[in-house]
Amino acid sequence: MLHLYPDTDAPWELLAKHLAGEASAAEQAELHQWLTAAPSRLRLLTDATRAWERGGSVAEAFTEADVEPAWQRFSAAAGLQPTGGTAPAPPAPAETGRVVPMWDQAQTWMRVAAAVLLLVGFWAVARTFLWKSNAAQAVTVAAGPRRQLATLPDGSRVWVNKNSTLSYAADFNQTSRVVQLRGEAFFEVQKDHGRPFTVLAGDTRTRVLGTSFNVRAYATEDSVEVAVVTGRVAFAPDRQKLTVQDSVLLTPGLRGVIRRAAPAVAVQRRITDPNFRAWQHDELVFDNQSLGQVANTLTRYYGTSVALSRPELANCRFTGTFHQAELPQVLRVLSLSANLSVTQSADGYTLDGPGCPSL
């Protein structure tokens, strides 16, 4: 059975010339470089070669009715000028029922490319069908008011934050390791050097081999962020949706940020918020943090705006730990320790007052 391959940028022309034995040394080297860039691509060469050997020739693998339209599509795609308005016509079928093409030897690779193009057309139709089929069989982890821990088929563990959704194909770990995220999740990925683990979130793509990292991609926020705890992560805009190509390599202690507004490029920064995983443990820890950082952390953690009435208040420092605490309780403790008052409005909470003694 013909395998279907997810890489739509396969060098079909080079593959066809290789099968026909017409590829130059430089073209063979170019095809070899593309094939070895990803382990899954080697299957393409293997299956194409086996299909070629079984068929013996394109004429045995495809009928005259199949090859003629494929040739026309290939000519148009390759920018070739048709001879006499049409492709060279093969003769009538022999008694055995075979179609014996009469194209000259110099065009053998073009003949094969036309056949390969026919396979590509079949793959495009089949991929659409399979995508719809897999979409119906997709596994979805939807965390409602409480976070959820999901164990993927490859053994990787994912903590899905509340009001976030993680989904992956039913055949995950059989052909590829790709998940889609809406919201926030923390990943502990099992190592598999043959198959990278990919997270698609908010028009961004995160690729790893085996590591732990946090992805934050809420539709209501203006950016997508990835923070790395262990291992290495490649973070970039999703090349299937965005034209700008800019990626960063993230190591422990670093985070990547991609703004949704154009140009969408990945920026590398240090992790400055020690509570970026607080949602995972239901615990906030502040160790001599500035009040400005505390307000930002509370806003992200609770999803409710916490603002300071005056810029100078941001310089105050706060130390404290809160475990499974509600926001009003945290603000009560904060106001008492920093000599502040708390005002609530439809937009959230505002801290005001004289502030710390040093101001």
UniProtKB/TrEMBL annotation:
<dbReference type="Pfam" id="PF16344">
    <property type="entry name" value="FecR_C"/>
</dbReference>
<dbReference type="InterPro" id="IPR012373">
    <property type="entry name" value="Ferrdict_sens_TM"/>
</dbReference>
<dbReference type="InterPro" id="IPR006860">
    <property type="entry name" value="FecR"/>
</dbReference>
<dbReference type="GO" id="GO:0016989">
    <property type="term" value="F:sigma factor antagonist activity"/>
</dbReference>
<dbReference type="InterPro" id="IPR032508">
    <property type="entry name" value="FecR_C"/>
</dbReference>
<protein>
    <submittedName>
        <fullName>DUF4974 domain-containing protein</fullName>
    </submittedName>
</protein>
<feature type="domain" description="Protein FecR C-terminal">
    <location>
        <begin position="283"/>
        <end position="344"/>
    </location>
</feature>
<keyword id="KW-1133">Transmembrane helix</keyword>
<keyword id="KW-0472">Membrane</keyword>
<dbReference type="Pfam" id="PF04773">
    <property type="entry name" value="FecR"/>
</dbReference>
<feature type="transmembrane region" description="Helical">
    <location>
        <begin position="108"/>
        <end position="126"/>
    </location>
</feature>
<feature type="domain" description="FecR protein">
    <location>
        <begin position="141"/>
        <end position="233"/>
    </location>
</feature>
<keyword id="KW-0812">Transmembrane</keyword>
